[in-house]
User: Which sequence fits this backbone?
């Protein structure tokens, strides 16, 4: 898609509005510079108001109206919101939470991925929609379901899940002896005599076996993929040539997005930088500094992550256009940020940025969620900035191919391992990936976040922040890779079965980095070990090796070891240590680094270079005398963007 | 009642003590200056020890003994504590919590307001008591049940509640189409086909529809009123000329006290200033400064609130006499505070202050709750101060009619709206009402807290801190009202059906205050916008208007707009901003304000003026040369009271 | 045992390792200086893989292998980990938590102590093991079950528990009238008509009757003892001459260890100083200062407590050998600490220190728990220090009889009372016992922690930090005791039935200390009353007495009263006040106190004196010119130990 201009779009709910507004809405969308519109994904109760009775007429008219205005339609299957009559017909379709409580009707996502009856119903409605619209010329793509797993819905402890889990385990292990051996069930007499004896790992007296938990997480992820594939196949068969899409969420690891991405044509995600800043691990100081911008790496991290999930084609399906309703606190974006976020997605290679939503709804759960338009139909700030972005995109033209500079390897099972066994409260492989990513971006480096099986050719640096289950094949590929490699703590610390490897961590990596982690420590907040310009907290590994130390603490304990091109970080690195290591590796790899002002990020795309100012101050970009600015200039105001050719 | 002296009383449990102590207790009560005694409200298991077998003899003797000592009796119906045999006969009478768990026998309030079987039992026991004592000359009033809703018992998710809720909805909406439209159930396919499909709004995957929740809160409140009315009618018919009373709690908004108050002759409340300080939103600094006094506005706020709930007749049914047992921390009141609280109730127009309880019980849940007497029958500090107060009351005489200065409008559905949709964590209409009240009281103004339908004539100022559902009739009355009006944030922001009004907030108020709130922001603690002498946090509204700004932030954003006599506050105001606005409005209204020392409050009653020192320091009252002091003087010690004629 | 050298041992799980490693393991144990090995306690699924089918062969070989290496075996009964097939045969054997949720299979301790069916199964497996190994010469003792109550498993709200509770109550009270009177059930109409009406005290609307709760805690404790005794009797009958042992936990009060101790030959406990520091009430500053050592009184407190639980014979059954896996944060011990902890147990009179565990398991829940050996079979730091300790123990020889200096009286029902009714958040009798103990130890005094019925002869000082239910017999013994006595707050404040005593607190103690506590206050953190060099927070009692004050606050309120030899502390004492009182009493009793450097502790054993440095600094011991050092010297490095003859 690098040869096409990025498109803009919007999420629209014709069923929410009087039909006589539709044509005007469509006209205004097109006039605003939008060419895509997503509809349908929550409309089941309007499409099938009674079991088996379909009402297509309104949707036919909506599709035609949007089509007439020149908009391409992304049609959603409405399986995230089964109607009440369906839940009443099979009440056991709802998920059970870890306490055994049903999670019932009244909001959304009230279905268990393992329930075969509901899977059939999902197939039925998807087929009906695809039969109706699959060949309609307005339809350019399909979004299957909506935000899988949102509201903590991947893992369900229902009887349906328990039954499916047993079958999954039997396929995986074949014999119960193999399972008992793999999990180490001899411990605490947890051995099973048959697969039929196994339950989900909830409601145990103290923590369950981590191998039991990890397999339940794998199983739960697989159920999402299996659920998805039923619809994907149905729709693909009935709507040839259209893209199959799903919209992922932010900082969400409950299922394997790499695996689901294989069943997609386009990976998309829903970008809410302010909500995510508020909800996640950021410090109070960061939450204050970036209150109305979001942390400068939140959007980019996900762009670079999801680009790696689906053969490179990706979109922002929902772009925050103003304040949202769902975070603990919901400030408004700084004026300019909606445009900035839009152009930043472009810089990272998106083929579409679609705003959520066209007009703020005056009713129901999301009535305090801004849209491009206000509830009174007037333009809101988001509309103003979308227009601005559309003009910018026209001026910039196609963005060009994404560069290959740094590969950061992330695996979803890394998150499952550290969730299951943090060993020190708050240890999160995802967070370590994010902090490492942030260090790379602070130095102006372009990053691809990729799966452990991704090819590494063309990259200057490979970074593996935390990969507990370390594939042998990756060891082989690292051996062949010619540039510097950074491997973070806990990498190689677990086998596929959540055991400590016989040769101790880093397990298979030992052939490349001849050291053994013989002991780990987790430290409570405030307990710090200091080195030269470095503070180490949270996590510290004791290493046995003949390798020389590259970085050490004042007490003599080494925290970074180097074995040729490969470095191993034996602690949770702070920002200073990461900065130093990034700088050193970039120099070794011959990659240019920048001394960026705080809150500023850059990104290359083909021959274009983009800069974004997330700070509260006007900054001066570190560009040598006078590049050819297409947008903006070397002096960059807060929330402003510059684009130049390099 | 303004022409009668305030009475003192006490809560007494003859069933807790040997019968041969009763006469001496009654004698001591009278000797102490008490003339009212509340009994009976938890005695069901003694009145009806077996189903259908009543034992009245002990209670007859208790009533006669108290009567003989000249005490008027307030008899409680014991429906807050159904005995075990009754629960065992209908186990489904207990409430279910939001997690679906039964809330069973073993403490109190273990009944669901919607359970028809229990409602019948409550009617039966109330009738039996009223039949027995309705015409007894000692009986001067009836307390129906006890502290409705205490321990979070208004809202129940039981099958009985679900069934009653459906019927309630059907009465309200008539057709399911009307309900679907009002709630906006098209959102997320939440549409129902019949009322039978509707469930209470708990155990949903993510938040339920706020309109669903608001109606469930309204319904739950109505069930309390309906439950109450059954007993009130029974007792009223059998005990003519006696007052029907209920004792409300502090900072409690789960049912509509204005509506329940219409079924009462006297609204009373249970005043525990130290416990409430500890339990509610006050800052650690306030909790420390007022540790042994309570915040100086806690008691007064409720006096002024409940006076507005029942045509002006109100009492303190339970007055804290010493340390309590139920707050996280339970300090002792500063010596003098029990007397101060008593006289403060008098200043605000109470017709009775009744201490809870006569003697500290040495057993069961409240054994660490002080009484006027210690468990060993000796006088405790509370008794000393009650005697002192009795002497003071005699000296002061009848307090005179309450003044009309400021009307502060509060509505229970405002609390339900902000509970349901805080939009920023901790946003509470109740808290904003309290903080506004506090600002008025710091300037020495007398306040009536009234319902939105209260007449406004005679007031100098009207203050509406936060009224999301803004009645059209109130708009009309404000248009007629001649003095300054202050309207706070979120007022007019919701329709009756929890929608954003079509013309945007402040909805119907737009005719008086021509502005539109086009966006709101909630800010996390520590995120502050500064103006001249003002810090704005928590909440900030973006306004579109031609009105001039009266107050602005340094960034130019206006936070107070003025349209003639009416001001609109487009933020959560801090104390400094409130002080400024109160001062300005008082000047406009020609109301005298005072520059009171910190922790000092004043209150007028007829021609009397009362002053109360909640601080730790002796203060000098800002009284011009030498008023005629009845109690105390211009130099006021901590916990002391002054009364003078103005 | 004072005439025998302390032994070292280890916990071993032959079933976790290849059989061909066993002989080498046994050899290495012996070579390391270990002479005891605990096995078997979690091996049910290997011993009885199918219902009724026993597989003894592997265990026979393991026993013989260990025996051949000269190791004495402590055999565990595996009742803490019933296998899945057993749970599936009687699913109602699992405990129910306070919310009514089952606590099922998948970890350990998934049984309700009251379930008669499971009690029979426990008897059956214990009998089978004792039949098989009772007379084997290798077997020197039996551990019954494992860590009773770990993971909050003492209290269960199951139907089995409810039924047993009713029977227990009927035995205790005989008539329901007696129970109603004792509990004060007239309060809130909680009276029962029969024992059959009574339920466990969970799922009540607000707090249950504290007397109900206390009896449920007593009952739950008794169920643990009854469960234990079934196995103890079976094993004792089949394995004469062997010790019956159980391993207690740290800071654990859910059952009465004094009572269970009566059924033991040896009380043992599981010593995890770093995990306990992290899990309990210590301040962030203490958690940081002692991060890798544990608070210097944690291990000693339990040594001195459990020595008093079983006629003086006690052991450390599990000694932390490195980082653990179960605390929120898990640092590594400072090098030297494993040796220090070992020798400290010796100083306090242990007959065995057994490390947990031999080798770190690479699988299942405790894979991150260190052992003496690493998972790769190499020696870990723990092994190095165990060797060092073994050499030290040989050099020191038998430790000699424990001294009698200070008796600190602790009762488990004190903890139940303050758990049930803290009255101020966080009030804990256990914590007050610990803080008082710590003050004694900071002055170098040797302490026995004893039950209220322990003989007091031979002690110089008696300290009773908090004993709400104060036995008459103890009053009599204190009257006879000749030395200074310190009695702490809330002592004597409750009757056996959780009532306030008729003569007010301190109840029966009034004859010795003629004062009455007429009121108590709990204060929130930060609310402090100051005296000379003393800060009083948390708890303050108002006292009526003619006794003179020994210590007072600046406001004149007395906080310590003295009646002859007996002092009463009317507040939660801070460290400064405790230090002062300890110093004064030691002087009166003629006990030598020491001015120990921060973090240093000493302990006498016969003629030996031990010193331990828990601080981060080298310290100089306050020893007069040149004692005869056996280990170390007057200059003591961090984590180092000195032993000399006095």
Assistant:
């Amino acid at each position: 898609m690098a040869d096409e201009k990025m498109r803009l779009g919007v999420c629209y709910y014709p069923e929410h509005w009087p039909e006589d507004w539709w044509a005007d809405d469509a006209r205004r969308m097109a006039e605003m510079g939008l060419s895509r519109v997503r509809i349908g994904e929550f409309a089941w109760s309007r499409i099938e108001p009674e079991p088996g009775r379909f009402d297509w007429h309104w949707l036919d008219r909506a599709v035609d109206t949007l089509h007439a205005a020149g908009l391409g339609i992304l049609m959603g299957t409405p399986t995230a919101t089964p109607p009440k009559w369906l839940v009443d017909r099979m009440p056991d379709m709802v998920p059970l939470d870890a306490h055994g409580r049903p999670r019932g009707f009244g909001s959304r996502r009230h279905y268990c991925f393992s329930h075969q009856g509901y899977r059939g119903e999902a197939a039925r409605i998807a087929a009906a929609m695809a039969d109706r619209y699959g060949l309609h010329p307005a339809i350019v793509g399909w979004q299957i379901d909506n935000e899988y797993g949102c509201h903590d819905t991947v893992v369900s402890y229902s009887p349906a899940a328990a039954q499916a889990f047993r079958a999954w385990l039997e396929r995986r292990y074949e014999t119960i002896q193999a399972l008992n051996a793999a999990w180490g069930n001899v411990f605490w007499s947890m051995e099973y005599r048959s697969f039929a004896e196994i339950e989900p790992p909830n409601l145990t007296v103290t923590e369950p076996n981590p191998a039991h938990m990890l397999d339940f997480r794998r199983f739960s992820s697989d159920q999402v993929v299996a659920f998805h594939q039923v619809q994907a196949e149905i729709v693909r068969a009935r709507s040839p040539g259209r893209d199959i899409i799903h919209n992922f969420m932010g900082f969400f690891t409950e299922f394997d997005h790499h695996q689901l991405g294989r069943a997609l044509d386009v990976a998309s995600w829903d970008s809410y930088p302010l909500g995510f800043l508020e909800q996640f691990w950021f410090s109070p100081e960061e939450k204050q500094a970036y209150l109305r911008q979001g942390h400068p790496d939140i959007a980019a991290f996900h762009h670079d992550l999801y680009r790696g999930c689906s053969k490179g084609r990706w979109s922002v399906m929902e772009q925050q256009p103003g304040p949202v309703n769902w975070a603990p606190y919901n400030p408004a974006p700084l004026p300019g940020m909606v445009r900035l976020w839009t152009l930043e997605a472009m810089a990272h290679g998106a083929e579409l940025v679609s705003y959520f939503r066209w007009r703020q709804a005056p009713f129901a759960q999301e009535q305090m969620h801004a849209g491009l338009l206000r509830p009174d139909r007037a333009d809101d700030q988001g509309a103003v900035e979308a227009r601005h972005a559309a003009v910018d995109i026209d001026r910039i033209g196609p963005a060009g191919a994404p560069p290959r500079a740094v590969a950061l390897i992330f695996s979803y099972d890394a998150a499952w391992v550290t969730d299951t066994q943090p060993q020190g409260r708050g240890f999160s492989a995802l967070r370590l990936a994010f902090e490492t990513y942030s260090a790379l971006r602070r130095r102006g480096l372009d990053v691809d976040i990729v799966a452990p099986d991704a090819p590494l050719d063309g990259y200057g640096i490979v970074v593996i922040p935390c990969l507990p289950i370390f594939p042998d094949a990756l060891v082989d590929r690292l051996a062949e890779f010619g540039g510097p490699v950074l491997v973070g703590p806990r990498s190689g610390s677990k086998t596929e079965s959540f055991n400590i490897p016989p040769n101790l961590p880093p397990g298979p990596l030992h052939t490349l980095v001849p050291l053994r982690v013989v002991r780990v420590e987790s430290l409570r907040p405030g307990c710090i070990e200091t080195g030269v310009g470095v503070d180490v907290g949270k996590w510290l590994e004791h290493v046995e090796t003949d390798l020389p130390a590259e970085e050490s603490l004042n007490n003599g304990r080494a925290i970074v070891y180097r074995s040729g091109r490969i470095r191993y970080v034996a602690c949770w690195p702070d920002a200073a240590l990461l900065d130093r290591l990034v700088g050193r590796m970039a120099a070794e790899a011959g990659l240019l680094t920048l001394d960026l002002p705080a809150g500023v990020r850059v990104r290359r795309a083909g021959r274009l270079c983009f800069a974004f100012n997330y700070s509260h101050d006007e900054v001066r970009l570190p560009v040598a005398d006078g590049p050819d600015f297409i947008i903006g200039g070397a002096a960059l105001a807060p929330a402003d963007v510059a684009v130049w050719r390099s």
